[in-house]
Amino acid sequence: MPGLDWEKLLKLQFKDGSFLFSPSSTAFAFMQTKDENCLAFLNKTVQRFNGGVPSVYPVDLFEHIWSVDRLQRLGISRYFQPEIKECLDYVYRYWTEDGICWARNSRVHDIDDTAMGFRILRLHGYEVSADVLRHFEKGGEFFCFEGQSNQAITGIFNLFRASQVMFPGDKILEDAKRFSSNFLREKQASGQLFDKWIITKDLPGE
């Protein structure tokens, strides 16, 4: 890819040495720049996975949030209260007023992890402001990532779930509920519920 300004691109490098927690992107950056921080991230990741690498690493906030959600949805969360508290304390430690993404210490945030994290933290008594969702709203519509041209079904579904823990005066959650419910109904009516992230077979039933 000729013409890339690596002096500028390296300023987007994350604290762990990666580019958006992507081993492949980081490997390409290392091939072009020989940056030692890139190499350190790659070595650490290869050692962590015994010679192989996943497509994204780490995904620590995603793992903690979704583990709690699945335990609750299975109806067995009461057997894992200490573990759940540990997970939520971890997520809250890295919570920011701009939101979160799938990994800690990211400058990129997404509505999927933010909405899910917000809902679960609020349900468990953690002090989190609904204003965090304002960073994913523009012109009355909500998006998963800034600059994204279309919305992901699962991200908007989790936004709808987050709107169910509304406090009086949470106008952003009123807006979120209105937008997400209309969006999901339209997608359901047109049979467009496909999403690459969906593993459940009964999203309409939810």
Automatic annotation (TrEMBL):
Q: Does the keyword Oxidoreductase apply?
A: no
Tell me, what is one Gene Ontology molecular-function annotation carried by this entry?
terpene synthase activity
Q: Which Gene3D superfamilies does this UniProt record tie to the protein?
A: 1.50.10.160, Terpene synthase, N-terminal domain (1.50.10.130)
Q: Which GO terms describe its biological process?
A: gibberellin biosynthetic process
Q: Which cofactor does it need?
A: Mg(2+)
One Pfam family, short name = Terpene_synth
Tell me the InterPro entries matching this sequence: Terpene_synth_N, Terpene_synth_N_sf, Terpene_synthase-like, Terpenoid_cyclase/PrenylTrfase
GO cellular component terms attached to this protein's record: chloroplast
Q: Does the keyword Metal-binding apply?
A: yes
Ranges of residues in domain Terpene synthase N-terminal: 5-190
Keywords, alphabetical: Magnesium, Metal-binding
Protein name as catalogued: Terpene synthase N-terminal domain-containing protein
Q: Which domain of life is it from?
A: Eukaryota
